[in-house]
Amino acid sequence: MKELVEVIAKALVDHPEAVRVQEREEEGNLVLQLSVDPEDTGKVIGKKGRIAKALRTVVGTAAVKEKKRVTVEIL
Questions:
Q1: How would you write 12-54 as a 3-class SS string?
Q2: Domains of the chain, with CATH numbers?
Q3: What predicted TM-score, i.e. pTM, was given to this entire model?
Q4: Among residues 6, 57, 63, 2, which one has the least CA distance to residue 29?
Q5: Listed residue (49, 2, 39) closest to 18, CA to CA
Q6: Which of 22, 30, 58, 75 is the most exposed place for a label (fewest CB within 10 A)?
Q7: CA-CA distance, 41 to 45, in Å (whole number)?
């Protein structure tokens, strides 16, 4: 999951070297924390949060195959 979020985020931003994804376990759920360069935050969130929602949908669908619950947080 972590690699999937990194690949998608790096494709969206101007500063791919600043993309960081951290994993942590919280109440049985996997939480992925995505941080990007402050200039790229808007590109990852998108207009009205559409890109962030799409990212969460893709990761959530991939998680279903592995029978996990995954949450993506954008910092």
A1: HCCCHHHCEEEEEEECCEEEEEEECCHHHHHHHHCHHHHHHHH
A2: 2-74 (3.30.300.20)
A3: 0.84
A4: 63
A5: 39
A6: 75
A7: 6
CA–CA separation, 63 and 14 (whole Å): 27
- DSSP 8-state secondary structure symbol assigned to residue 68: -
Interval 13-42: pLDDT, tens: 999 999 999 999 988 889 999 999 999 999
pLDDT in tens, 31-75: 999 999 999 999 999 999 999 999 999 999 988 888 889 999 998
Sheet holding 29-35, edge to edge: 20-26, 29-35, 70-74
H/E segment holding residue 70: strand 70-74
